[in-house]
Every structure is written in C-alpha cells, then in structure tokens.
Amino acid sequence: MGEHAPRLRPVLESIPGYQPGRSVAASGAQDGSVYKLSSNENPFPPLPGVLERTLAGTASVNRYPDLACGELVRELSTYLDVPESHIATGTGSVGVTQQLLQATVGPGDEVLYAWRSFEAYPVLTQIVGADSVRVPLTTGAAHDLTAMAAAITEHTRLIFVCNPNNPTGTIVRRAELERFLDHVPSDVLVVLDEAYIEFVRDDDFPDGIEVYRNRPNVCVLRTFSKAFGLAGLRVGFAVAHEPVAAALRRTAVPFGVTRFAQDAAIASLRADALMRERVALLVAERNRVTSALSEQGWTVPPSHANFVWLATHEHTTAFTQACEDEGVLVRSFDGEGVRISVGERTANDRFLFASQRFRKETLD
C-alpha cells in the first residue's frame, strides 16, 4: 500500500481560513466577566414565537426540511413585495455568497469588491478559482465607486457592494450607486450585500430592493443573522431576477436551510415591529458609543451598522489585548484596525473604559 495522501487541490494551501470573531475566553477584568463584541451578534434574545415554533419542530427531526423553503419564501415575498420566483435561500448570507460565486464565475474570471470589506469575499472567490480585484477604500473608509468602475474589465463577472460596509460601517448613497450601476455592463452581476440594512438611518441610503426592480443585473443579499438575531441558525436569502434566482437555487446545498431555521425566520418576520424597536435601541447605543469615542479623541467613521470601526494601525494588536484585559473581545484586523460590535449597555461601557484607558496610556 502506498504512503501518499489523497490528492487535493493545491490552491487550498494558499487559502486563509475564515476568521470568526473571538469567543469568550479568560478575562483580566476584576469581576471575571467577558463581553463578546467581536461577531456583530444581536445581544437580544430570540423574538417572540421563535423558540416556541423552533421547539415544536423537534418532533420531526427524522424528516428532511422543505427543500424549497416554500413557507419562508411566501412570507418573504409578501414582506418585501417581490415575486416568489425572485427569492433564493441559503445557509446565511455567506452561504448565498458562495452560491453566487458558483453560479457566475470560474478560473480566469474576476470578482471585484472594495477592500477592506467582508472577509468572506476573497476566501470564497479563491475557492472557486476566480481572481479577486480589490479596490482600496477611500480615506474615509468608504467604497470608492469611481475607482471600482475604472477597475471593471472584460473578465469582470461579479461585483460586490457591501452596503453598509463590513467592517467600517460606511455606506454608498443613492446617487453614487445609480451612477456606478449605469457604468456597469449589463452582463456583469452586481450584488448589493445588505446584511445590516435595518440599522441604517440615512434618508439617502438606496434600498436594494427598490434598486433591483428595474435592473436585471442587480442582486440583493440579506440575512436573518443580525437584526433578526438568528445568527446561530444560518438562514439568508437573495432577491434577484430570473435567471439569477434560479441559478442560486440550483447551486444551493440541498436541504441546507434546516426546518428550525425556516420556522425561526418565519416567526421573526411576524415579529417585525419588535425587531425594529430593538434595532432602534441598538442604533441609539451605536450613536452613544460613537460620540464617546470621538470625545476621547478617536477618529470614528460614521457607522450605519451595529458596530463601529477604529483605525488603530500599528497599535491594533496592543489595543485588542487592552480590551481583552478589561473583559471585552473585539474583532482585530492586524495592522489596520478593530471592529467593535454594539452590545448591551454594560458591555459598551466596559469597552469605552478600555478605549479611554488605552488612549491615555498609549496615544496621548
């Protein structure tokens, strides 16, 4: 018998693994408490009806879930006022992102996006064998759509516009997006990744659902993980014209969205009013944290999501450790900055204490 391992694709050796936000670890805080502000999770418990409907589904775990997510798709069709045939579901917005890439690109094709942006883009692009074209953000940590338009080539097949942008929280506004879309060739798919749309309060923000209606090459990507608080169940969806939506259904993992996820998403949609009340509280906390950081002397890009961004550059590792020493876990991007999720008020206060202490002891 030979001693050789199974032959795998060489490209896998150069693909960095997706880095999730750090989980709860030992804390240097005096009371031993740890607050996880590293994954943009919703700090509120599941919305009314979610647990009850999810638990009821345990009686049929011996059966496969609905492959087509029929009831959820009908709910979304009504909720968004779009045709059912324009909706495709997947295992969170990351799962749908992978479906998009599998449906549109292959070796030699280019995927265009701003950088830094959602870190799954380069990982999933490399997995399918396509080439990433990363366009640097502006000095204000926002998409540079002029530069992105100039970067489109005959090999461009897919463009991601993360709006609001993860991890910087900045947005692309209506007029600049429309100008950009007018420049994009009609056979290039533009994905408006709107995972954080519920947290936006800017009147000039372009709702992707309205944008897509008259643009067959625009796809809208959304998730139940953030505002609806279902991060642990993995359910996301896309809204797009045919044949894009049909292609996404073909590239989906069969039965990937569990019955629990489908039922929880339906119950969450039906609790929309309370979801929006909770989001309003998180937006108020986001604004409070942003103002406090500015008063401490930090430069903070205006955030339109449920997190804030600090460009800590060479101090990133030290700042991350200083937060952890105070019992706060934040998302670190080496040499660039940190993303801090908005959590419960006590968690946010603990973070603000850490940021103020670090600034006084290290930067001022």
Regions with pLDDT < 50 over 5+ consecutive residues? none
The protein's oligomeric status is single chain
Radius of gyration: 21 Å
Q: What is the 3D shape? A: globular
Quantity of strands, as a count: 11
Mean pLDDT level: 94
Q: Count helical runs.
A: 12
Structural class: alpha/beta
List SSEs in N-to-C order: EHHEHEHEHEHEHEEHHHEHEEH
Strand content: 15-25%
Strand order of the largest sheet: 2-8-7-6-5-3-4
Give the terminus-to-terminus CA distance. Answer: 66 Å
* Major pleated sheet: 7 strands, mixed
Please explain how this structure is put together.
The chain has 364 residues and is an alpha/beta fold. It is built from twelve helices and eleven strands. The longest helix has 25 residues, at 272-296. The radius of gyration is 21 Å and the shape is globular. The relative contact order is 0.17. The model has no long low-confidence stretch (mean pLDDT 94).
